[in-house]
Amino acid sequence: MRAIRTEKILIFFILITPFFLILFYFTAKIPSNTMQKYGFSLKRCRLFPIFYKFVFEFNLIYMKYQKAEFTINCKNEDKPIVIDLVISIAGEAGFESFEDHPDKVVGYVQPHLLNTEMLTSELQNFPISDVEISYELQSVADINWNLAWEEIGFEPVYINKQCVVYDAKHTSQSQLIENIPIKVGIETQQAFGTGTHPTTQMMIKQILQLNLKRKTILDSGCGTGVLGIVAAQKGAKSIVSYDIDEWSVKNTQHNARINHINNIKVFQSDSSILNGIKKQFDLILANINRNILLHDIPAFASVMKDDGTLILSGFYKEDSLHLLEKAENLALKETACDSQDQWACIVFKKERTEKRL
Fold this sequence. Notes:
Elements lengths: L1 H27 L3 H12 L5 H13 L3 E9 L5 H14 L4 E4 L3 E6 L6 H9 L7 E9 L4 H8 L4 E3 L3 E5 L14 E5 L11 H11 L7 E5 L5 H8 L4 E6 L2 H13 L5 E5 L12 E7 L2 H13 L1 E13 L3 H9 L3 E9 L2 E8 L2 H4 L1
Parallel strand pairs: 6-7, 8-9, 8-11, 9-10, 11-12
Antiparallel strand pairs: 1-3, 1-4, 2-3, 5-6, 12-14, 13-14
Helix pairs in contact: 2-3, 10-11
């Protein structure tokens, strides 16, 4: 009897295997953003929860990408800002990562996320004169991007002799300069925020100047979580972080753990999450691009304490005026500013209610 039962089970699995193979093939073709859109209902399906997770993770890790080479012809003195602007425009058009070279930029994009019309239009109407930009798209072989990005690593970044951000996967604390009070180990895993970018460095410089003992912090667009972790090591009472990308949320949680930080709560969301938050924050950090900042500043102001601080970066110096005008209408007063390699950082203070009356 046992042999007959085993034989029936074996036949059953042989019969259903082709069905699962076909289902896997077609599901793996679904773009990752579509999987994310409908993922909640798929996860709730009692028949395929494990199968769904496998396909979803497979699709995220082995993503289909195209590579674009942007060739730039311009004056040598304009090249740094032109390269930054090309990266910014391409990022708005869907590109996710970049390499820079002496006379070109190489970018990577998932085909279904690329807005070709917007990219072409913005490059044709480039804001700097006497600049010629051309690009060519080509397919890229499937790569495990998680593994590729993690293996690149980065050199330790020292900031004001008070803080060092280092690659926790490839560097040990014993290799760092001694007597640095704040040491933040980061494993990137696709998220932004290693300390190598000027905007991250300027944000950290401003955080280091503040007394954060017992303060409440909001970290908008947290990326790797580096800013929140620095704030925690400065004595912050609690940190609420959020990011629209699932991998950034997971990366922040992971980096908090390896830095022994247990007072950071991380959520996957955009600024709409602030509509449901009743608490007020002493400090808000946002290192994002200009357009998102312009949209989100009112939401930031609504959850800031009187005399609270807002630190913004992720935009160019020439964009500062737009942000200053927006902030002024919300009773946010500029108290400090900084710039590095065409990038800017502004610190605001929220005026007390009685001063506005």
